């Protein structure tokens, strides 16, 4: 593969990066590993921290905030993309909360008002002893009652047999048995119920209440269909603790809190403020609605999380309380590609292997492959992804491949093979769609065509595709000429980028486009088009159509244009380049600022030449087929560009001033 401005090198993980990482060894060069592993033979030799908070990767600022919040028992709102470690931070916070005496919660019957059970807090571990002692006394009463009943029934049956009145004695025995069942010892009815048990808790409680309904979150009272005749269950026995009560002295974690109903959020806010919350039946049609316990302690720390959109559904008072009495934390989705952070990724692999418990450890070359995949998934060469839940899926998939092949350790080959199995559902759908399009593709990788350009797009997470764009300049037939008409299910941003192209056409062609109706078609865009990364392609196709200069069909391109003709960076550069190579293109034009983001796989190295561009002039110079018309156009465009540069005072660039 060739670069116009800098050479590429081969990495040991079958990827291409733009930063040289080679070690000279006499006449030859060998690829430098991602890390100096020293005596580490596999991920088994890497120490895994015992506390969860120390296992969180790449969120140093967030961890510092969590530690402050834990020390002072502050509420926290974590905002970030899925899979970056929000729930892990919440669990880690529970482990480092200041030590407090945990409590067991008991609920007792209320003799004066059966529908208002009493609540008592005792030190952790004492609750079970109290219940055991009370039920032991009740069990003794029950055993004595059973013995007396059996003697009475036996005596009646013997007397009936002796006097020949067996039927009457059987009826009498049945009545005695029924009466015995109905009579319950007072001590049994007075036995408390253990509502919250913290006997075996080593750390502060952690309760994940994500998606919990009101009853599970706030507590509930079970319905009793037998409320008369002595068959009913006492009210205190039907009381069930909610997650807010089980999280007492610990952490209550709620992901996507904005999806919770406003009423439930309001009740949760009341529990946070009062640090206690009475339990009542959540259904108005249930007998439990008549029962309301005394206030039950719920002194928890709330850790709420979600993405930015979740804030729209969040109760304004809830967020205000967190912001006023706690912390709001925005979590990154990538970290800088440094030696220290690469070491953290290796630690992450060791953690995943240990936590899974069913896959082999990773060899150094497999660890290198994981690091490179983290670079690719970040979308930038100088960064590593922090969407580690998805990356953990690749780790486990690679381990499964190694087990299937009977290997005792995971190698780089296993990781590369596992990439095919660790794709998301969206990625699989996107790949299938791309394969179907190729069967009916209109992409031509040879010759020259006027007004037809091979644009590039990304479908799904990381699947690139060549998307042809055609332009035709037709003489206007009405007074409202000069329109740019685009088809292909364009989104709002894509429509705006089409309109912005008209300014560049006027500037660089020096033609009155009011004499033309310019038609732009995004070919085979069944799912629609959104974004402005096709604006370079649109401008190229339109200028080719107006000037009647053919476009080299062996070249694909991508990039965003501003109204001054500068090529701006885009997303998905690597996927787009690989798609161009797969389609048989010989060259691909990308924004120069995206060069640092390119990490294509080894098999594409010699298949395609990557050319960085900075201006629309650069693009046209590299994609239009040579001829006198092209030379005149390029010269005219460069002259226009130099005149614009002369008009901009150097002092305004180098020494900007503010008013």
UniProtKB/TrEMBL annotation:
GO molecular function, one term: ATP-dependent peptidase activity
Compositionally biased tracts (Acidic residues): 1-13
Membrane topology: Multi-pass membrane protein
InterPro entries cross-referenced by the UniProt entry: AAA+_ATPase, Lon_arc, Lon_proteolytic, Lon_Prtase, LonB_AAA-LID, Mg_chelatse_chII-like_cat_dom, P-loop_NTPase, Ribosomal_Su5_D2-typ_SF
GO cellular component: plasma membrane
Gene3D superfamilies: 1.10.8.60, 3.30.230.10, P-loop containing nucleotide triphosphate hydrolases (3.40.50.300)
Active site: 533, 576
EC nos: 3.4.21.-
Top EC class of this enzyme: hydrolase
SMART domains named among the record's database cross-references: AAA
GO terms classed as biological process: protein catabolic process; proteolysis; regulation of DNA-templated transcription
Subcellular location: Cell membrane
Domain (Lon proteolytic): residue spans on this chain: 447-626
Keywords: ATP-binding, Cell membrane, Hydrolase, Membrane, Nucleotide-binding, Protease, Serine protease, Transmembrane, Transmembrane helix
Disordered: annotated span: 1-30
Sequence intervals crossing the membrane: 146-163
Annotated function: ATP-dependent serine protease that mediates the selective degradation of mutant and abnormal proteins as well as certain short-lived regulatory proteins. Degrades polypeptides processively.
Family stated for the protein in its record: Belongs to the peptidase S16 family. Archaeal LonB subfamily.
NCBIfam families per the UniProt record, alphabetical: lon_rel
Subunit structure, as described in the record: Homohexamer. Organized in a ring with a central cavity.
Name of the protein this chain belongs to: Archaeal Lon protease
Species the sequence originates in: Methanobrevibacter thaueri
Name of the gene: lon2
């Amino acid at each position: 593969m060739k670069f116009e401005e800098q050479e590429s090198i081969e990495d040991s993980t079958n990827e291409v990066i733009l930063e040289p990482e080679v070690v000279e060894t006499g006449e030859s060069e060998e690829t430098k590993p991602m890390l100096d592993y020293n005596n580490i033979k596999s991920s088994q030799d890497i120490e895994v921290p015992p506390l969860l908070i120390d296992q969180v990767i790449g969120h140093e600022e967030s961890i510092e905030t969590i530690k402050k919040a834990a020390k002072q028992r502050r509420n926290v709102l974590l905002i970030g993309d899925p899979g970056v470690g929000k729930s892990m931070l919440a669990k880690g916070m529970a482990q480092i909360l200041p030590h407090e005496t945990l409590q067991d919660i008991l609920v007792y019957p209320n003799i004066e008002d059966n529908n208002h059970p009493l609540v008592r807090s005792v030190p952790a571990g004492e609750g079970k002893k109290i219940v055991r002692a009370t039920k032991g006394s009740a069990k003794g009463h029950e055993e004595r009652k059973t013995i007396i009943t059996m003697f009475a029934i036996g005596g009646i049956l013997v007397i009936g047999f002796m006097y020949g009145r067996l039927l009457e004695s059987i009826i009498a025995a049945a009545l005695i048995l029924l009466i015995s069942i109905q009579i319950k010892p007072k001590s049994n009815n007075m036995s408390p119920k253990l509502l919250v048990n913290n006997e075996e808790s080593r750390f502060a409680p952690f309760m994940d209440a994500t998606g919990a309904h009101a009853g599970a979150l706030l507590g509930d009272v079970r319905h009793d269909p037998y409320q008369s005749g002595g068959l009913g269950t006492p009210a205190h026995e039907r009381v069930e603790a909610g997650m807010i009560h089980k999280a007492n002295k610990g952490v209550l974690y709620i992901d996507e809190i904005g999806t919770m109903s406003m009423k439930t959020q309001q009740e949760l806010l009341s529990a946070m403020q009062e640090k206690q919350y009475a339990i009542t039946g959540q259904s108005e049609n249930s007998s439990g609605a008549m029962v309301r316990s005394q206030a039950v302690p719920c002194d928890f720390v709330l850790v709420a999380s979600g993405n930015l959109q979740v804030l729209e559904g969040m109760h304004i008072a809830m967020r205000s309380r967190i912001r006023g009495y706690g912390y709001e934390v925005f979590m990154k989705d990538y970290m800088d590609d440094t030696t220290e952070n690469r070491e953290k990724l290796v630690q992450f692999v060791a953690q995943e292997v240990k936590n899974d418990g069913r896959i082999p450890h990773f060899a150094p070359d497999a660890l290198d492959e994981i690091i490179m995949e983290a670079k690719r998934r970040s979308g930038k060469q100088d960064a590593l992804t922090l969407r580690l839940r998805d990356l953990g899926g690749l780790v486990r998939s690679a381990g499964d491949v190694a087990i299937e092949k009977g290997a005792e350790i995971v190698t780089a080959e296993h990781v590369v093979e596992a990439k095919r199995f660790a794709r998301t559902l969206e990625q699989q759908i996107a790949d299938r769609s791309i394969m179907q399009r190729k069967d009916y593709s209109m992409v031509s990788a040879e010759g020259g065509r006027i007004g037809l350009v091979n644009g590039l797009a990304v479908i799904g997470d990381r699947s690139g595709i060549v998307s042809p764009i055609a332009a035709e300049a037709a003489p206007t037939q009405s007074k409202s000429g000069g329109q740019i008409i685009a088809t292909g299910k364009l989104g709002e941003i894509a429509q705006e980028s089409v309109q912005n192209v008209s300014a560049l056409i006027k500037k660089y062609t020096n033609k009155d486009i009011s004499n033309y109706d310019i038609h732009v078609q995004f070919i085979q865009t069944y799912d629609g088009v959104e974004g402005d990364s096709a604006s370079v392609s649109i401008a190229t196709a339109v200028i080719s159509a107006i000037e009647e200069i053919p476009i080299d069909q062996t070249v694909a391109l991508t990039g965003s244009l501003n109204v001054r003709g500068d090529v701006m960076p885009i997303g998905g550069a690597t996927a787009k380049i690989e798609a161009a190579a797969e389609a048989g293109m010989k060259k691909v034009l990308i924004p120069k600022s995206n060069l640092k983001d390119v990490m294509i796989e080894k098999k594409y190295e010699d298949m395609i030449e990557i050319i960085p561009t900075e201006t629309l002039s650069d693009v046209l110079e590299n994609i239009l087929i040579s001829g006198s018309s092209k030379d005149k156009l390029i010269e005219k465009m460069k002259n226009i560009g130099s005149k614009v540069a002369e008009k901009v005072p150097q002092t305004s660039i180098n020494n900007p001033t503010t008013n």
